[in-house]
Structures are given as structure tokens and as C-alpha cells.
Amino acid sequence: MTPASPEQFKDAVRQAWDASASGWNQQTPAIRNWLAAPTATLLDEAQIGPGMRVLDIAAGAGDQTLDIARRVGEGGRVLATDISPAILQFASENARGAGLPQVQTQVCDAEDLLPGETGFDAAVCRLGLMLCPNPLGALRQMHRVLRPGGHAAVLVFSEPQRNPCIGILMTTACRHAGLAPRDPLTPGGLLSLGKPGLLQDYFSQAGFTDVATERMQAPFQLPSARDYLHFVRTSASPIVQILGHLNPEAREAAWADMEEQLEVFQLPEGWEGPNELLLAHGMRPLG
Ligand SMILES: C[S@@+](CC[C@H](N)C(=O)[O-])C[C@H]1O[C@@H](n2cnc3c(N)ncnc32)[C@H](O)[C@@H]1O
Question: Ligand 1 test: best mutation among 84, 139, 216, 231, most atoms within 8 Å of CB?
Fold first, then answer.
């Protein structure tokens, strides 16, 4: 079940996101509601303004791409990139539908960014870097494509205990699938960059200066735990893949078990799953 090489891992990631591209795109209103405030801060820290040329890495269906496009305006340019052609197609269509011709798209791996391209004013990555088996390599690529003085900013999940819903999902899925619990810090996993200090360290090692990291609360608010599970089931979550090996009855039993545990986060006014994100940012030095 464990891919043998980083390339096999990325092939599996690409296939998973191709398969769930439509589901992720349909969840855009919920994702927007969940991530609106952290996204605004992400774009502030990347110092994105009118007329800039910005690279959006692991752009998905382009929710944050559209925000960037509005900030740079008609005189700017946003290049949205992703490893999954199917999800990037949604980003392209969504930009066209929103009347934002300054958005272009290009399929590419974050660890092998746009060979030969440089000079971007800013580069951002929202909830994508932790899925790279070599996140330091991806940050080095971000550094390479920026102009001197350009800014990079990245959002990832923080440590496991501050993202308990993901922990419940992973532990329960592994137990039902008869698998040993996974180390949440394994490279490429959802919580893999949550270890305190790790992302900050990687930014410095990649050559960025003025590096800073801040924690951001991003509770997922939905009517019920079942709605959250619907979101998980329609995304390329590893949970879906872990349970994919079970027969339908066993799979439904696993989802029901998760739902029961997640109901602990039900409030009178609705369901609120705690989530904490890390926002790290830095500048490519001028010299
Ligand atoms: C959780 S989604 C986030 C999408 C979008 N940034 C958002 O916040 O809505 C993760 C995205 O990372 C992309 N991705 C995963 N590994 C990647 C890699 N090595 N290079 C580029 N994109 C990658 C996936 O295809 C997917 O679109």
C-alpha cells in the first residue's frame, strides 16, 4: 500500500486529485467559508498588490487564485499550477467564469517548478506543501522562481493535537482497515509539516530571509458531523484511499464510527471542527 518512491507517491496523489477534482470544486463554498480569513492573511504576507506577477502553487480548483487575481488586477498576472490536470481545469474554468483573464494555468509538480521561469513577485501555496514528499525541495523551487525581494507564503496544518478531526479520521480508518496507526509526521501526510519549528527551518534552509510563522485558527463550521464527512468523502483525502480496500458494508461501518466520534464537536448552533493552520512566509534576499 505504501508507494515505493517519491515519484510513485506523486503519481498516486495526482490520480487521487484527478478523481476527486469535481468533488473538491463543488465544495468551494464550504472551503471558502472555512479559509477566507487565513487566505486574506496569506496574500497579505506574500505582499500581493496591483500589477504583480504571482505564482499559485497546488492551486486546486482555484479558490485562492481568484482572490489573487482580484488583488493583482487586470495589469497583473497569476499563474495557477497543480500536479492534477483535472483539478486545474476547474481553476481555469472558474477564472474564466469570474471574468479574470489575468489567470493562466500550467500543470506542474511543486518540486519541479516551471524550469527556466523566474522573476515572480510573489509565490503562495494554500494547503498543498504538506502533500509534497520533499517540501524543502519545493520551497527551494519557490525561492528560485521569485525575483530578489519577492515574497513566498504558505499555509499548512499545524500539529496533530490541534487538528483532532484529522486524527480521529486517520486512526479510525486505519483501525477498520486493519492497518497500524500511521505516524502523522510522515512526509506527504496532511499533518506532516505541523511539527513546531519545522516549516520555519525549511524556509531558512531554502534561502529565505525575514522568515516568520504564525498560528491561525480555522474552525470548520458546518451544520453537522455528517456534512464534514461528506466533505472528506468528496475530497482526495487519504481516508478514502485507506477505506477503499474494504467491502461496502465494512466501509460504511467505518464512516459511521467516525461520525459518532466527530459528534463530540456538535454545538447547539451547528458543528464546529477545530483546525489550526500555520502560515509561514519569507523573502528572497535582495543581494
Ligand atoms: C488540499 S488541495 C488544496 C487546493 C487549493 N490550494 C485550495 O486550498 O483550495 C491540495 C492540492 O495540492 C495538489 N498537489 C498535491 N501534491 C502536489 C505536488 N507535488 N505538486 C503540485 N500540486 C500538488 C493537489 O493536486 C491538490 O489540488
Answer: 84
Q: What is the pLDDT of residues 222-265, one digit of tens each?
A: 999 999 999 999 887 889 889 988 999 999 999 999 999 999 99
- The rounded Å distance from CA 287 to ligand 1 centre is 32
Q: Tell me, what CATH number does 121's domain have?
A: 3.40.50.150
139 domain-assigned:
yes
CA distance 132 to 128: 7
Ligand 1 centre to CA of 132 (Å) is: 9
The total number of structural domains that make up the chain: 1
Q: How far is it, in rounded angstroms, from Cα 120 to Cα 146?
A: 5
Domain span at 73 = 6-158+187-221+274-283
CA of 260 to the centre of ligand 1 (A): 29
**Whose CA is closest to atom 13 on ligand 1?**
58
Q: Work out which ligand 1 atom sits closest to the CA atom of 155.
A: 8
pLDDT score, position 1? 46
Query: Looking at ligand 1, which atom is closest to the CA of residue 10?
Result: 19
Mean pLDDT rounded to a whole number for the chain: 95
pLDDT of residue 222: 94
- What interhelical angle do 248-262 and 164-177 show, nearest 10? 150
- What was the pLDDT predicted at 287? 76
How remote is the C-alpha of 46 from its chain's centroid?
16
Structure-block grid coordinates of residue 41: 492573511
Counting Cα atoms < 13 Å in the Cβ hemisphere of 171 gives 10
